[in-house]
Write a structure and sequence with these properties.
With about 200 residues, chain A is an all-alpha fold. Chain A contains ten helices and no strands. Chain A has one domain: Orthogonal Bundle (Tetracycline Repressor, domain 2). Chain A has helices spanning about 5-20, 25-35, 35-40, 45-70, 75-90, 95-105, 110-130, 145-160, 160-170, 175-200. In chain A, helix 1 packs across helix 6 (about 95-105). Chain A is elongated, with a radius of gyration of 19 Å.
């Protein structure tokens, strides 16, 4: 069996992702792990520390693809590969998008964490890296943040909105078949953006 | 001053949108309106009835543009105008996207309402209407629901994720200048989808 601290992190991640930070309690986390609430304090000093540990673990995973992208020449193929990897990562780890969305909706205390540690590197590195080949909106650079924001939102809202579409489409949207379709769709959209810029 | 029932609806809409159905209480609604909690029951029999009344009022507003689109020839210009109207409607009434997102994240009891009353008409009418001119993914029709879902998510997640980007971009994302940019961006993306289909 996994060490207790890891099981606590797993349970807390699921709970925060389902209900958001404010509506979650340490008592519920302890229940899910099957330990007594005071035992939690052997591992995490309070709810805030537990949330931050959950976030640290997820950010380690989610910042990796961008680091890899930045280590190589920023070509169209590499950008597409990065977006595909990120799309799959969100589908395979849906709690990241859920935590982010809860923070944006009702947990303003944590929005700064996400901005500093996830979004800033994204906007800074992607904007700075813009080699001629991959750059979009060459003629109207003020639209570039809109493009980054929109693709980021598109990938995450697929995960957070999935329960609303699953009954309608009769599919498990986080399953393998749907994940492949979503990866294809994101690629098509990115290539469409490149092609419209060429025509302009 | 507005009639009490309307002030109750306004306050309830804001509260449900901020905290979600489960974390909201009738006592808080009464507090915000400045009436005693028992007075609420003169207008709505319980929390569920109040939530449904909030939803009814929003759906009336949000289903209108699709009805208008269906009354005219479905041309590219009309589809673009419809998407622009819908994008603005979401920005001007941000509570709709917030309610939907809360339902998808943690309030499974209400997902059916949104699916039946908002999403089904969207997928049914848009798919059926597909005149040759506006149709995308002519050669791979199984991608069409993905396109509808993605554009729908894109428009709504702009609203629900706004608090996370506002500090980063230093802009009020629900203000007029940003709204215009978002409308432009959605138009560019839709036109990009049309142009890639023509090349295929």
């Amino acid at each position: 069996m996994k060490p207790t601290a890891e099981r606590v992190l797993d349970a807390a991640e699921d709970l925060f992702a389902a209900k958001g930070y404010n509506a979650s309690s340490l008592g519920e986390v302890a229940d899910r792990v099957g330990i007594r609430p005071p035992s939690l304090y052997n591992h995490f000093k309070n709810k805030e520390a537990l949330y931050m540990a959950v976030l640290d673990r997820l950010l380690l995973k989610f910042n990796q693809p961008l680091r890899e992208l930045m280590e190589r020449p920023v070509t169209r193929d590499n950008v597409l590969a990065w977006q595909k990897k990120l799309t799959r990562l969100h589908i395979e780890n849906p709690n990241m998008a859920r935590l982010l969305q809860h923070a944006a909706l009702s947990d303003s205390a944590h929005t700064k964490e996400f901005v500093e540690r996830l979004f800033k590197p994204l906007f800074k590195d992607v904007t700075a890296s813009g080699s001629e080949e991959v750059m979009i909106f060459k003629e109207s650079r003020e639209m570039l943040p809109w493009a980054i924001m929109s693709f980021n939102n598109l990938v995450m809202s697929y995960v957070t909105m999935a329960p609303l579409y699953e009954s309608l489409l009769g599919k498990d949207l986080l399953g393998e078949e749907s994940a492949n379709k979503q990866v294809d769709f994101i690629s098509i959209l990115i290539q469409a953006m490149w092609s419209i810029d060429e025509e302009a």
